[in-house]
Amino acid sequence: MSDHIYLDPTEYHFDTFLIDPLVLICSPEHWLTEKKHCRFSDIASEVFLIKPEHSATRDFLLDRIQENNKELKNVMEINSLEGIKQGVIHGLGISILSRLSIMQELKSGLLCEIAFDDIQFSRGIRYFYHKEKYISPATKNFLSVLQSQAQILTKDINK
């Protein structure tokens, strides 16, 4: 679960095990690929493909954009992550997605990542459990593996 979603620390134990940057993406044919980086104002009038209302990722993005006194003008809502990726690949617009979720498309050249000069989108990913619930040895082992694999994954995400 994203670390920007509130959990009551008196009820839940939680631990952030991974930092997940969200990045601006476009198709390889998009004009942004020539620039390699931009300011948010450069792309404010572009069509943004985002999740519909009540999506935690959408809320996070819009909150960060608003915190930076920016706004999205042209939004196309698409219900699934895969739908957004395919829409960007086929030139329907641009998006801001988790780098973790698009690593294969970036490696294969289907999508291009463009760096922002003036705004950053990064969130922690955490696990949580109720403090009063029994945690089995298998669950404890799983959480340990999760922690160690997150360290490996962090290196891949930040390449």
Could you please describe the fold and organization of this structure?
Helix 2 links the parallel strand 3 and strand 4. The strands form two sheets. Strands 1, 2, 5, 6 and 7 form a five-stranded mixed sheet that branches. The mean pLDDT is 90. The protein is α/β, with parallel strands linked by helices and 159 residues long. The protein is globular, with a radius of gyration of 17 Å.
Radius of gyration: 17 Å
Given as residue ranges, the uncertain stretches (5+ residues, pLDDT < 50) are none
Amino-to-carboxy terminus distance:
23 Å
What would you call the structural class?
A: alpha/beta
Main sheet record: 5 strands, mixed
What is the helix content?
A: 25-40%
| SSE topology string | EEHEHEHEHEEH
- pLDDT average, as an integer? 90
What is the strand tally?
7
Number of helices: 5
Q: What's the shape?
A: globular
**What share of the residues does DSSP label as strand, in percent?**
25-35%
Question: Secondary structure elements and their pairing?
Answer:
Blueprint: E1 12-26, E2 37-38, H1 40-43, E3 47-50, H2 56-67, E4 74-77, H3 81-89, E5 95-98, H4 99-108, E6 112-116, E7 121-130, H5 137-157
Parallel strand pairs: 2-6, 3-4
Antiparallel strand pairs: 1-5, 1-6, 1-7
Provide a brief overview of the structure.
The chain is α/β, with parallel strands linked by helices.
Key words describing this protein structure:
159 residues; alpha/beta; five-stranded mixed beta sheet; two-stranded parallel sheet; 5 helices; 7 strands
